[in-house]
Amino acid sequence: MNRQSRRLPSLNALRAFEAASRHLNFRLAGLELGVTQGAVAQQIRALETELALRLFERLPRGLALTQNGHRYAANVRRAFDMLADATESLRPEPENLTVSVTPTLAAKWLIPRLGDFTRAHPHLTLRVLATERLSHFFTDNVDLAVRYGRPPFGPGLNVELLFEERLIAVTSASRTGTESTVQAQVPGQVHADAALVLLHDSQSSWDEFLEHQGLTSSKPFKSLWFNQTTLTIDAALMGQGAALVQQEFVQRDLLSGRLVKVFSDPMSTDAGYYLVWPRKPRHPEAIATVRSWMLSMV
Protein backbone atom coordinates (compact mmCIF):
# COMPACT_ATOMS: atom_id res chain seq x y z
CA MET A 1 0.00 0.00 0.00
CA ASN A 2 1.50 3.32 -1.03
CA ARG A 3 1.44 6.39 1.17
CA GLN A 4 -1.13 8.23 -0.93
CA SER A 5 -3.74 5.49 -0.44
CA ARG A 6 -3.41 5.38 3.35
CA ARG A 7 -6.48 6.70 5.13
CA LEU A 8 -5.62 8.62 8.28
CA PRO A 9 -7.99 9.49 11.12
CA SER A 10 -9.29 13.03 11.49
CA LEU A 11 -6.62 15.43 12.70
CA ASN A 12 -9.13 16.94 15.15
CA ALA A 13 -9.84 13.49 16.55
CA LEU A 14 -6.13 12.83 16.99
CA ARG A 15 -5.66 16.19 18.74
CA ALA A 16 -8.55 15.39 21.08
CA PHE A 17 -7.09 11.96 21.81
CA GLU A 18 -3.58 13.30 22.47
CA ALA A 19 -4.88 15.94 24.87
CA ALA A 20 -7.16 13.49 26.65
CA SER A 21 -4.32 10.95 26.95
CA ARG A 22 -2.31 13.53 28.94
CA HIS A 23 -5.11 14.84 31.13
CA LEU A 24 -7.09 11.59 31.43
CA ASN A 25 -10.08 13.88 31.58
CA PHE A 26 -12.33 14.97 28.71
CA ARG A 27 -13.24 18.27 30.38
CA LEU A 28 -9.63 19.37 30.85
CA ALA A 29 -8.79 18.26 27.31
CA GLY A 30 -11.68 20.38 26.04
CA LEU A 31 -10.44 23.42 27.99
CA GLU A 32 -6.99 23.03 26.40
CA LEU A 33 -8.43 22.74 22.90
CA GLY A 34 -11.12 25.37 23.31
CA VAL A 35 -14.05 22.98 22.80
CA THR A 36 -16.65 21.38 25.03
CA GLN A 37 -16.24 18.17 27.03
CA GLY A 38 -18.94 16.60 24.85
CA ALA A 39 -17.07 17.48 21.66
CA VAL A 40 -13.94 15.73 22.95
CA ALA A 41 -15.91 12.65 23.96
CA GLN A 42 -17.55 12.56 20.52
CA GLN A 43 -14.18 12.78 18.74
CA ILE A 44 -12.77 9.96 20.89
CA ARG A 45 -15.79 7.71 20.20
CA ALA A 46 -15.45 8.36 16.46
CA LEU A 47 -11.73 7.54 16.60
CA GLU A 48 -12.32 4.31 18.52
CA THR A 49 -15.01 3.31 16.04
CA GLU A 50 -12.73 3.96 13.09
CA LEU A 51 -9.85 2.02 14.66
CA ALA A 52 -12.15 -0.70 16.00
CA LEU A 53 -10.21 -0.44 19.26
CA ARG A 54 -10.90 0.86 22.73
CA LEU A 55 -8.39 3.55 23.66
CA PHE A 56 -9.76 4.50 27.10
CA GLU A 57 -11.29 2.70 30.03
CA ARG A 58 -14.22 4.76 31.32
CA LEU A 59 -13.90 4.64 35.10
CA PRO A 60 -16.26 6.02 37.76
CA ARG A 61 -13.77 8.78 38.57
CA GLY A 62 -11.97 9.50 35.34
CA LEU A 63 -10.26 7.74 32.48
CA ALA A 64 -7.47 5.23 32.02
CA LEU A 65 -5.64 4.37 28.81
CA THR A 66 -5.91 0.83 27.55
CA GLN A 67 -2.78 -0.99 26.46
CA ASN A 68 -3.51 -0.02 22.85
CA GLY A 69 -4.24 3.53 24.02
CA HIS A 70 -0.83 3.78 25.73
CA ARG A 71 0.99 2.65 22.60
CA TYR A 72 -1.06 4.85 20.29
CA ALA A 73 -0.70 7.93 22.51
CA ALA A 74 3.11 7.71 22.46
CA ASN A 75 3.19 7.48 18.66
CA VAL A 76 0.60 10.22 18.11
CA ARG A 77 2.49 12.55 20.49
CA ARG A 78 5.71 11.87 18.61
CA ALA A 79 3.96 12.64 15.32
CA PHE A 80 2.65 15.95 16.63
CA ASP A 81 6.14 16.84 17.86
CA MET A 82 7.52 16.15 14.39
CA LEU A 83 4.84 18.36 12.84
CA ALA A 84 5.68 21.14 15.28
CA ASP A 85 9.40 20.85 14.51
CA ALA A 86 8.74 20.87 10.76
CA THR A 87 6.60 23.98 11.10
CA GLU A 88 9.17 25.81 13.26
CA SER A 89 11.91 25.01 10.76
CA LEU A 90 10.04 27.10 8.18
CA ARG A 91 9.97 30.15 10.41
CA PRO A 92 13.02 32.41 10.65
CA GLU A 93 14.76 31.93 13.98
CA PRO A 94 15.41 35.07 16.03
CA GLU A 95 18.95 36.30 15.60
CA ASN A 96 20.91 37.34 18.66
CA LEU A 97 23.42 40.17 18.33
CA THR A 98 25.72 41.44 21.09
CA VAL A 99 26.45 45.17 21.01
CA SER A 100 29.17 46.62 23.25
CA VAL A 101 28.76 50.26 24.29
CA THR A 102 29.77 52.52 27.16
CA PRO A 103 27.31 52.77 30.08
CA THR A 104 26.56 56.42 29.22
CA LEU A 105 25.84 55.74 25.57
CA ALA A 106 23.65 52.81 26.61
CA ALA A 107 21.66 54.74 29.22
CA LYS A 108 21.39 58.13 27.54
CA TRP A 109 21.26 57.32 23.83
CA LEU A 110 20.63 53.66 23.02
CA ILE A 111 18.06 52.45 25.57
CA PRO A 112 15.57 55.32 25.02
CA ARG A 113 15.45 54.29 21.34
CA LEU A 114 15.36 50.49 21.69
CA GLY A 115 11.56 50.34 21.69
CA ASP A 116 11.54 51.63 18.12
CA PHE A 117 14.11 49.01 17.14
CA THR A 118 12.28 46.02 18.64
CA ARG A 119 9.03 47.05 16.97
CA ALA A 120 10.74 47.42 13.60
CA HIS A 121 12.84 44.23 13.90
CA PRO A 122 10.97 41.68 16.08
CA HIS A 123 13.11 38.74 14.89
CA LEU A 124 16.40 40.34 15.93
CA THR A 125 17.32 40.23 19.62
CA LEU A 126 19.93 42.65 20.93
CA ARG A 127 22.17 41.87 23.90
CA VAL A 128 23.56 45.17 25.15
CA LEU A 129 26.91 44.89 26.91
CA ALA A 130 27.45 48.20 28.75
CA THR A 131 31.01 48.48 30.02
CA GLU A 132 33.85 50.96 30.28
CA ARG A 133 36.23 48.10 29.51
CA LEU A 134 37.32 47.57 25.92
CA SER A 135 35.44 44.47 24.80
CA HIS A 136 37.01 41.94 22.45
CA PHE A 137 34.96 40.71 19.54
CA PHE A 138 35.87 37.04 19.73
CA THR A 139 36.71 36.36 23.37
CA ASP A 140 33.64 38.32 24.58
CA ASN A 141 31.38 37.19 21.70
CA VAL A 142 30.75 40.82 20.71
CA ASP A 143 29.34 41.39 17.21
CA LEU A 144 29.25 45.19 17.05
CA ALA A 145 30.76 47.90 19.24
CA VAL A 146 30.54 51.65 19.58
CA ARG A 147 33.98 52.97 20.48
CA TYR A 148 35.04 56.46 21.44
CA GLY A 149 38.26 57.90 20.10
CA ARG A 150 40.02 58.17 16.78
CA PRO A 151 40.50 55.39 14.22
CA PRO A 152 42.17 53.06 13.46
CA PHE A 153 41.02 50.76 16.25
CA GLY A 154 42.96 47.67 15.22
CA PRO A 155 43.59 45.30 12.33
CA GLY A 156 40.78 43.30 10.79
CA LEU A 157 38.06 45.76 11.81
CA ASN A 158 35.53 47.82 9.88
CA VAL A 159 34.95 51.35 11.16
CA GLU A 160 32.07 53.75 10.50
CA LEU A 161 31.47 57.13 12.14
CA LEU A 162 28.30 57.24 14.26
CA PHE A 163 28.64 60.85 15.42
CA GLU A 164 31.46 63.32 15.95
CA GLU A 165 32.27 64.57 19.43
CA ARG A 166 30.46 67.84 20.07
CA LEU A 167 30.64 68.89 23.70
CA ILE A 168 28.12 71.20 25.32
CA ALA A 169 27.75 72.45 28.88
CA VAL A 170 24.30 71.85 30.35
CA THR A 171 22.61 72.39 33.66
CA SER A 172 19.15 71.97 35.13
CA ALA A 173 16.48 74.32 33.83
CA SER A 174 15.63 75.01 37.47
CA ARG A 175 18.98 76.86 37.81
CA THR A 176 17.50 79.95 36.19
CA GLY A 177 19.84 82.76 35.44
CA THR A 178 22.99 80.64 35.19
CA GLU A 179 23.59 81.37 31.51
CA SER A 180 22.93 85.10 31.77
CA THR A 181 25.05 85.36 34.92
CA VAL A 182 28.03 83.70 33.30
CA GLN A 183 27.84 85.46 29.97
CA ALA A 184 27.24 88.88 31.55
CA GLN A 185 30.79 88.94 32.89
CA VAL A 186 33.46 91.10 31.32
CA PRO A 187 34.57 89.31 28.09
CA GLY A 188 37.41 86.96 28.84
CA GLN A 189 36.64 86.85 32.56
CA VAL A 190 34.41 84.49 34.52
CA HIS A 191 34.52 84.67 38.27
CA ALA A 192 33.83 82.01 40.89
CA ASP A 193 30.86 84.01 42.13
CA ALA A 194 29.08 82.99 38.90
CA ALA A 195 27.76 80.14 41.12
CA LEU A 196 28.68 77.53 38.53
CA VAL A 197 29.72 74.14 39.91
CA LEU A 198 31.61 72.12 37.30
CA LEU A 199 30.72 68.42 37.15
CA HIS A 200 33.72 66.38 36.03
CA ASP A 201 34.07 62.83 34.73
CA SER A 202 36.94 60.80 33.29
CA GLN A 203 36.52 62.43 29.85
CA SER A 204 35.62 66.01 30.74
CA SER A 205 37.93 68.79 29.58
CA TRP A 206 36.51 71.91 31.20
CA ASP A 207 39.70 73.99 30.85
CA GLU A 208 39.77 73.43 27.11
CA PHE A 209 36.03 74.07 26.82
CA LEU A 210 36.17 77.37 28.75
CA GLU A 211 39.13 78.45 26.66
CA HIS A 212 37.10 77.59 23.54
CA GLN A 213 34.40 79.94 24.83
CA GLY A 214 37.03 82.66 25.23
CA LEU A 215 36.60 82.72 28.99
CA THR A 216 38.99 82.47 31.90
CA SER A 217 38.45 82.46 35.64
CA SER A 218 40.24 84.49 38.27
CA LYS A 219 39.25 81.89 40.87
CA PRO A 220 38.81 78.17 40.48
CA PHE A 221 35.27 76.96 40.06
CA LYS A 222 33.82 74.58 42.58
CA SER A 223 33.92 71.02 41.26
CA LEU A 224 32.32 67.63 41.74
CA TRP A 225 33.96 64.52 40.31
CA PHE A 226 32.34 61.32 39.02
CA ASN A 227 33.73 58.22 37.33
CA GLN A 228 31.04 58.06 34.62
CA THR A 229 29.50 60.65 32.34
CA THR A 230 26.00 59.37 32.99
CA LEU A 231 26.43 60.36 36.64
CA THR A 232 27.40 63.93 35.71
CA ILE A 233 24.27 64.17 33.55
CA ASP A 234 22.09 62.91 36.40
CA ALA A 235 23.75 65.39 38.76
CA ALA A 236 23.08 68.21 36.30
CA LEU A 237 19.43 67.16 36.04
CA MET A 238 19.21 67.41 39.83
CA GLY A 239 20.55 70.95 39.78
CA GLN A 240 23.94 70.15 41.28
CA GLY A 241 26.02 71.89 38.62
CA ALA A 242 26.93 71.96 34.95
CA ALA A 243 27.96 68.86 33.00
CA LEU A 244 30.18 68.87 29.93
CA VAL A 245 28.77 66.15 27.69
CA GLN A 246 28.31 64.83 24.19
CA GLN A 247 25.37 66.69 22.65
CA GLU A 248 23.52 63.52 21.56
CA PHE A 249 23.46 62.19 25.14
CA VAL A 250 21.28 65.04 26.38
CA GLN A 251 19.30 65.89 23.23
CA ARG A 252 16.01 64.64 24.66
CA ASP A 253 16.56 66.45 27.94
CA LEU A 254 17.21 69.68 26.03
CA LEU A 255 14.10 69.23 23.87
CA SER A 256 11.96 68.52 26.92
CA GLY A 257 13.33 71.54 28.77
CA ARG A 258 14.79 69.53 31.64
CA LEU A 259 18.27 70.77 30.75
CA VAL A 260 19.46 74.05 29.26
CA LYS A 261 22.76 75.02 27.69
CA VAL A 262 25.09 77.11 29.80
CA PHE A 263 26.90 78.29 26.65
CA SER A 264 25.33 78.26 23.21
CA ASP A 265 28.52 77.36 21.35
CA PRO A 266 29.45 73.64 21.32
CA MET A 267 33.06 72.51 21.12
CA SER A 268 33.98 70.00 18.42
CA THR A 269 37.05 67.79 18.77
CA ASP A 270 38.84 65.42 16.42
CA ALA A 271 37.41 62.41 18.30
CA GLY A 272 34.08 60.71 17.81
CA TYR A 273 31.92 57.67 18.45
CA TYR A 274 32.48 54.94 15.88
CA LEU A 275 30.69 51.73 14.92
CA VAL A 276 33.30 48.97 14.87
CA TRP A 277 32.85 45.34 13.79
CA PRO A 278 35.02 42.48 12.44
CA ARG A 279 35.65 42.29 8.71
CA LYS A 280 34.49 38.67 8.86
CA PRO A 281 31.42 38.94 11.13
CA ARG A 282 29.34 36.01 12.33
CA HIS A 283 26.02 37.72 11.51
CA PRO A 284 26.65 40.12 8.62
CA GLU A 285 22.98 40.74 7.77
CA ALA A 286 22.02 41.43 11.38
CA ILE A 287 24.98 43.79 11.81
CA ALA A 288 23.97 45.67 8.67
CA THR A 289 20.44 46.04 10.06
CA VAL A 290 21.62 47.40 13.41
CA ARG A 291 24.18 49.73 11.79
CA SER A 292 21.56 51.15 9.45
CA TRP A 293 19.14 51.69 12.32
CA MET A 294 21.74 53.36 14.56
CA LEU A 295 22.81 55.73 11.80
CA SER A 296 19.17 56.63 11.13
CA MET A 297 18.81 57.60 14.80
CA VAL A 298 21.59 60.21 14.63
TrEMBL record:
Q: Where is the HTH lysR-type domain?
A: 9-66
Statement: the UniProt record of this protein carries the keyword DNA-binding? yes
**Which Pfam families has this protein been placed in?**
HTH_1, LysR_substrate
GO MF terms here are: DNA-binding transcription factor activity; sequence-specific DNA binding
Q: Which residues form a coiled coil?
A: none
Q: Which SUPFAM superfamilies match?
A: Periplasmic binding protein-like II, Winged helix' DNA-binding domain
Q: Name one GO biological process term.
A: DNA-templated transcription
Q: Which PROSITE patterns match?
A: HTH_LYSR (PS50931)
Q: Which UniProt keywords apply?
A: DNA-binding, Transcription, Transcription regulation
InterPro entries per the record? LysR-type_TF_proteobact-type (IPR058163), LysR_HTH_N (IPR000847), LysR_subst-bd (IPR005119), WH-like_DNA-bd_sf (IPR036388), WH_DNA-bd_sf (IPR036390)
Which CDD domains does the protein's record reference? PBP2_GcdR_TrpI_HvrB_AmpR_like (cd08432)
Q: What is this protein called?
A: LysR family glycine cleavage system transcriptional activator
Q: Per the UniProt entry, what species is this protein from, by scientific name? A: Acidovorax delafieldii
Lineage, broadest ranks = Bacteria, Pseudomonadati, Pseudomonadota, Betaproteobacteria, Burkholderiales
